């Protein structure tokens, strides 16, 4: 088994990742929640576009709609766990990337 395969296996077997996947399966089965998540993503795109073209009133409106939709999503059971795990996993992946980058830089020194 290569080092890459060992790393992938370690990540896939991580308890937090396993829990994240189980929660994600439940979320993906909930059509209403998926609809709201898609709406949130659409609002987020509109918000970014409004910021880019300097539409301050539109930005305020989209931020308000974004927060309302996000609150609705966070009210679903397991969503707070899901979002917390997502943050933890992102942090873990950033740490892994940093370790790999540091190792590569040391190899070139």
TrEMBL record:
InterPro entries xref list: Bact_com_dev_regulator, Biofilm_formation_YmcA, Com_YlbF, YheA/YmcA-like_dom_sf
Q: Does the keyword tRNA-binding apply?
A: no
Q: What top-level branch of life does the organism fall under?
A: Bacteria
Keywords (alphabetical) are: Coiled coil
Which residue windows are coiled coil? 23-53
Q: Which Pfam families match?
A: Com_YlbF (PF06133)
Is Ubl conjugation a UniProt keyword of this protein?
A: no
Protein name, as recorded: YlbF family regulator
Q: Which organism is it from?
A: Peloplasma aerotolerans
């Amino acid at each position: 088994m290569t080092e890459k395969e060992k790393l992938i296996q370690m990540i896939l077997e991580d308890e937090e990742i396993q829990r994240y996947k189980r929660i994600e399966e439940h979320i993906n089965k909930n059509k209403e929640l998926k609809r709201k998540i898609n709406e949130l993503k659409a609002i987020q795109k509109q918000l970014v576009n409004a910021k880019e073209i300097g539409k301050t009133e539109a930005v305020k409106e989209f931020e308000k709609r974004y927060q309302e939709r996000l609150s609705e999503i966070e009210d679903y059971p397991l969503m707070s766990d899901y979002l917390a795990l997502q943050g933890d996993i992102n942090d873990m992946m950033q740490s892994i990337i940093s370790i790999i980058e540091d190792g590569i830089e040391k190899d070139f020194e």
